[in-house]
Write a structure and sequence with these properties.
Shape: elongated
Strand content: 15-25%
CATH architecture of the largest domain: 3-Layer(aba) Sandwich
CATH topology of the largest domain: hypothetical protein tt1634
Radius of gyration: 21 Å
Structural class: alpha+beta
Helix content: 40-55%
Strand order of the largest sheet: 3-2-4-1-5
Largest sheet: 5 strands, antiparallel
Distance between the termini: 30 Å
Length: 170
């Protein structure tokens, strides 16, 4: 089961920096990252949401490839495989982009918008959905940024360990 961590930070760039650190842990197989969202609130109070996974782009790419393949095969029947491939790629990319924009994968967008309203000005938050992690290494790696726990689905024991690790670094 995936675990959700929502961490608040002082400073606009802190959440991006922590996400880069988490990605480095992923490369070392210490974190199995399912999804991540960075939320920043500027001095004017505007909220900026950055999804780690662009589903529209992924849908367009996969739709374009499968459309090109099917267009090529249908084009073979009509003795014009290149035209079939071009038409299929265009139609597949359009359909894939549409389906990707309608999908909500990982951290739910409505939850991100709701919680982002509580983030103070000139600060940021990181929403991380983790399948599996070596939590002691994760907590140690992010403790330099002194995150505040805004929301979590960790067990009580794991949440207590996180709080202890954050207090120890302060």
């Amino acid at each position: 089961m995936s675990q959700l961590l929502v961490l608040g930070f002082d400073g606009m760039a802190a959440a991006d920096e922590v996400l880069n650190r988490v990605r480095a842990l992923k490369a070392r197989h210490l974190v199995d990252l399912e999804d991540a969202v960075v939320v920043e609130r500027d001095a004017d109070g505007q909220v900026h949401i950055k999804q780690a996974v662009n589903l529209t782009r992924m849908g367009a790419a996969s739709g374009g490839l499968s459309g090109a393949l099917w267009g090529f095969l249908v084009g073979l029947l009509f003795m014009n495989p290149l035209a079939g491939m071009a038409v299929g790629a265009g139609a597949g990319a359009g359909a894939g982009a549409l389906s990707g924009s309608l999908m909500d994968y990982g951290v739910r967008d409505d939850f991100v918008r709701q919680l982002s309203a509580t983030i103070p000005r000139e600060s940021s938050a990181l929403f991380v959905l983790v399948r599996e992690a070596t939590y002691d290494k994760l907590f140690e790696a992010i403790s330099d940024w002194k995150p505040r726990i805004l929301e979590t689905s960790l067990s009580n024991e794991q949440e207590a360990r996180l709080a202890e690790a954050l207090k120890a670094s302060a």
